[in-house]
Amino acid sequence: MAAGPEWERSATALTREWTFADFPAALAWVNRVGEVAEQRGHHPDILLHGWNHVRLTLSTHATGGLTAADEALAEAVDALGA
After folding, report:
1. Tens of pLDDT, residues 21-71
2. Of 18, 21, 42, 60, whose Cβ has the fewest other Cβ atoms within 10 Å?
């Protein structure tokens, strides 16, 4: 499994940002991401900023870097669409 090319990769995290039509759409999408994260037991850092922007940062805090769980969650988030 691998994160799609839209994800910015650093040594310790995967980051991606989305822009939505409005605040309710951004918030609804955050809730969908939250459901997937909870099912997987792996939770991203979520920033809802402005009125329609969402940034996710995936990193495994216990290891201080990227793991297969981060890649798998990125792939699952990509499958949600926006």
Report:
1. 999 999 999 999 999 999 999 999 999 999 999 999 999 988 888 999 999
2. 21
Containing structural domain, residue 18: 8-80
Strand-strand pairing, 8-9 and 14-19: antiparallel
Residue 2 lies in a domain: no
Neighbours of 28 (CB within 10 A): 10
pTM: 0.91
d(CA 64, CA 80): 26
- Whether 13 shows a pLDDT value over 70: the answer reads yes
3-state secondary structure of 10: coil
Residue 64 is assigned to a structural domain of this protein: yes
Alpha carbon separation from 23 to 10, 29, 80 (Å, rounded): 28, 10, 18
